[in-house]
Amino acid sequence: TLNECGIIDFPKILDPRGNLSFLEENKHFPFHIERTYWIYDVPGGEKRGGHSFKTNQEVIIALSGSFDVVLDDGVNKKVFSLNRSYYGLYIPQLIWRHMENFSTNSLALMVSSTVFAESDYERDYGVFLNTKNGK
Ligand code: TYD
């Protein structure tokens, strides 16, 4: 459910030469990392996502710029505005999500618990709702 979604605060090493953040699977992650991918060059007004995963868990980081992640567990919706490169948004499986309001030159990094498999996607919102409601 949405209660399981939340912000991971990664370490930040503040430095007059420029700041540094990092993540380690065993220290900062609730899952074993199998893949990362990133979304960039998003034209103004475009949305990404619009699906849930059956098993894949993710952490989304706004490495650069800002965007909103809209989460939906089939009952409630919640919007997380990501605008700091040291925040990660944890999303468990079976949460519908889309991303919108990308700023110019924003860079979204996704860290995933599974390798890519189209069969792990649910892209039909009606089917998603039925699954959540046990139909
Ligand atoms: P998709 O996950 O639908 O994009 P969004 O982030 O907007 O939800 O992926 C778009 C396309 O890219 C789709 O055809 C599958 C392909 N793709 C891969 O081949 N490997 C990957 O790791 C990902 C995330 C997507």
Automatic annotation (TrEMBL):
Stored InterPro entries: QdtA_cupin_dom (IPR008894), RmlC-like_jellyroll (IPR014710), RmlC_Cupin_sf (IPR011051)
Domain of life: Bacteria
Pfam families: FdtA
Chain ranges of the Sugar 3,4-ketoisomerase QdtA cupin domain: 4-132
SUPFAM superfamilies registered for this protein in UniProt: RmlC-like cupins (SSF51182)
Coiled-coil annotated spans: none
Name of the protein this chain belongs to: FdtA/QdtA family cupin domain-containing protein
